[in-house]
């Protein structure tokens, strides 16, 4: 009886130790194109996308303009430092949404991924992206 209890305790202990690893989620999708989970602005089909290379180089296609940045990705944390953006001639609404998205990206401190969805967290507004697949 004692041996059975000890075996059951060992099994439960080993299962509980493996849970954090299983809950950690999928790795960051370096090199993948991530599309913002949002509807297009009326009158446009464009939706913001970003891509982060393994060396941290980041390209961002906004509602109107484009930007470059550097991302430092660690376990569940991320820091984004904007380099520059190229302003395009667009409607004021799209330009304002570009500014809002860039500000939100600069505030991001954490990320999590589940399947094809990557969430950037830490600022006032969580940003949800979907990994584009072929």
CA(first)-CA(last) distance:
56 Å
- Work out the count of structural domains: 1
Q: Which runs of at least 5 residues are low in confidence (pLDDT < 50)?
A: 3-23
* Strand residues, percent: 35-45%
The CATH class label is Mainly Beta
CATH architecture title = Beta Barrel
As for the CATH topology, it is: Lipocalin
* Individual helix count: 2
Output the strand order for the largest sheet: 5-4-3-2-1-8-7-6
Strand segment count:
8
Largest sheet: 8 strands, antiparallel
The helicity comes to 25-40%
Question: N-to-C SSE series?
Answer: HEEEEEHEEE
Q: Estimate the mean pLDDT confidence.
A: 83
Structural class: alpha+beta
Label the overall shape: globular
The Rg value, from CA coordinates, equals 20 Å
Topology:
Layout: H1 2-23, E1 33-36, E2 49-52, E3 57-61, E4 66-74, E5 77-86, H2 92-107, E6 110-114, E7 117-121, E8 127-131
Antiparallel strand pairs: 1-2, 1-8, 2-3, 3-4, 4-5, 6-7, 7-8
Characterise this structure:
The chain has one domain: Lipocalin. Helix content is 28%, strand content 35%. It contains 2 helices and 8 strands; from the N terminus they run H-E-E-E-E-E-H-E-E-E. It has an 8-stranded antiparallel beta sheet, covered by helices on one side. The chain is globular and about 40 Å long. The protein starts with a helix and ends with a strand.
């Amino acid at each position: 009886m004692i041996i059975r209890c000890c075996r059951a305790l060992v099994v439960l202990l080993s299962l509980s130790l493996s849970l954090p690893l299983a809950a950690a989620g999928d790795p960051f999708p370096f090199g993948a194109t991530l599309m913002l989970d949002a509807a297009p602005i009326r009158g446009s089909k464009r939706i913001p996308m970003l891509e982060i290379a393994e060396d941290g180089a980041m390209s961002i296609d906004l509602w109107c303009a484009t930007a470059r940045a550097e991302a430092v990705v660690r376990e569940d944390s991320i820091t984004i430092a904007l380099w520059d953006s190229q302003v395009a001639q667009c409607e004021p609404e799209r330009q304002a949404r570009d500014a809002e998205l860039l500000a939100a990206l600069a505030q991001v401190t954490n990320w999590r991924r589940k399947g094809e969805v990557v969430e950037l967290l830490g600022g006032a507004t969580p940003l949800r992206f979907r990994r584009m697949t072929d």
